Amino acid sequence: MPIAFVLFLILVACSPRPLPPVPTEVTATETRNTPAGSPTPTSVIPMTTVPPPSETATITTTPPVSGGSFFLVAEADARVTESDPNDNDGDSPTLQADGAGDSGIESFIRFTVNEVPGPIQSARLRLYVTDNRTENGPAVYATDNTWEESSITWNNRPAPTSNAVDNAEELDSNSWLEYDVTSLVTGSGTFSFVLIADSTDGVVFSSREGDQPPQLMITLAAGKASPAVPTVVGTDSSEDAVLVGAGDISDCSNNNDERTAQLLDAIPGTIFTTGDNAYRSGTFLEYITCYDPTWGRHRDRTKPVPGNHEYHTSDAAGYFQYFNNIPSYYAYSLGSWRIYALNSEIDPSQNSFQLAWLREDLATNPSQCAFAYWHRPRWSSGNHHGSDEDLQDLWRILYEAGVELVVNGHEHHYERFAEMNGEGVATSPGLREFVVGTGGRDHYGFGRPLPASEVREDSTYGVLKLTLHADSYDWEFIPIAGSTFTDSGSTNCH
Predict the structure, then answer these.
(1) Looking at residue 35, what is its pLDDT?
(2) Burial of 127 by CB count in 10 Å (0-12 exposed, 13-18 middle, 19+ buried)?
(3) What is the C-alpha separation between 217 and 126, in angstroms, rounded?
(4) Tell me, what DSSP letter sits at residue 257?
(5) Does residue 6 sit in helix, strand or coil?
(6) Which of 307, 311, 353, 479 is most exposed by smallest CB count within 10 Å?
(7) Is 419 or 226 the better-scoring residue by pLDDT?
(8) CA-CA distance, 320 to 314, in Å (whole number)?
């Protein structure tokens, strides 16, 4: 997306926010004839209704991100028009296909698939039909990768390199269409597709600049794991590492996220988020206009996870687009520590794909010290959501593996627990939990404290800084400028 366009969106969507100075010290207290032989059309998938903005959206357990499937958001797309043969529309929020007598319009889409760890069972190109339904949708073809989003035109566009691999018939507005492109996507690589109409009844799809960007859903053969994010380059095992972050962060209606982002400006290390990063629905536009100017200035060193609000946008597409198709869950290493970034918004049960992957990684990467973070807390004294029993299997796996600590969000406050056992009873050594939903959205209160709850604060925005030593960790809650609440301590690994 061109820089000027992003700046325009920011100016339109966000009112100026007067900000305090960054603290210098933080104290811790062309039309072509369509080739013959088009295959049988695929089905149209009605749109899953996106729930209204709500704090009680249910956990998502349906594809494309659960089970043995994962999806990618288009890295480039553009439409080209015969009537304006030298114009480039790479920054348009829509894609189109029209022709067969009308002035031709074609659309190009590209994905890169990295490090697929086994045979692909199926690959499906998913496109969202906006407000222009059609009685006869376009066909999809392979094309080469010589085009660029910012420069492709009708006159320089590449030709199809295959017959039609799938075709569509009647398409309703506000619905998802799936094309079967398994014959083309057989492993890792870069893949480009072109949509060419075979009727005069055109159709409009959302582009990657729109609210529902094109997706490529890949399902692996049974028994294969979803690809994990490459392990980040860790610090030397003898050096300390710093992780700092929070959850429940950006809303263009206030500037609290800028105040917590200013804390990050002064703290080196890796940044984590615990979900609900961009309100209210985690759309790409909300990420660009609200999150990007604040916490987004540290995107290159951020290891995020999604929350329930990201899934108010179908399949959390805005989140995955903004964070460059980061996996739904993943692991990385910092110093001697193994870090797990997990997804509480997909199936977290004992037999789920995610937990099977987690158990395998814990066994493959034994470490004296390990840390996990995700959105919904297993234990909480909060009066808005409280404890989530659906996370019990995950909690027990981590406890039995000797993981040191867990950090969550969801409840918009700070709470620290004692070390606990698999049932949430205080014990040492055990698994400690922090709830750090203090990134800036707003605050929630507390109900009756759980027995293992040690510290609670519901009126301060800030970040949790974790200093990871070779065999221990320090924690420090750092408040925004003008606030006085702090919390700190140290615990040995076990």
Answers:
(1) 36
(2) buried
(3) 7
(4) H
(5) helix
(6) 353
(7) 419
(8) 11
CB neighbour list of residue 426: distance below 8 Å, 6 or more residues apart: 417, 418, 419, 420, 451, 452
- Name 167's bridge partners: 139
Lookup: tokens for 39: 């295959």
Chain centroid offset of residue 420 CA = 30
Residue 414 CA to residue 407 CA, distance in Å, equals 10
Counting Cβ atoms within 10 Å, is residue 277 exposed (0-12), middle (13-18) or buried (19+)? Answer: buried
**Which band of pLDDT confidence, cut at 50, 70 and 90, is reported for residue 238?**
low
| Structural element, H or E, at residue 242 | strand 241-246
Give the whole-angstrom CA distance, residue 403 versus residue 429. Answer: 10
Domains and CATH numbers, the chain: 68-220 (2.60.120), 241-492 (3.60.21.10)
β-pairing, 405-408 vs 369-373, is parallel
* 66 burial type by CB count under 10 A (0-12 exposed, 13-18 middle, 19+ buried): buried
Q: Extract the tokens encoding 227.
A: 């690809």
- The pTM score is 0.64
Between strands 337-341 and 405-408, the pairing is unpaired
Residue 215 φ/ψ, nearest 5 degrees:
-130, 150
CA atoms within 13 A on the CB side of 451: 7
Please tell me whether residue 391 adopts helix, strand or coil conformation: helix
Task: Specify the DSSP class assigned to residue 290.
Answer: I
What tokens does 111 get? 């994905």
Q: Are 111 and 127 in contact (CB under 8 A)?
A: no
Exposed, middle or buried, 184 (CB in 10 Å: 0-12/13-18/19+)? buried
- Tell me if residue 34 falls in helix, strand or coil: coil
Query: Which residues, other chains included, contact 148 with Cβ-Cβ below 8 Å and sequence gap of 6+?
Result: 76, 90
Pairing of strands 432-436, 166-167: unpaired
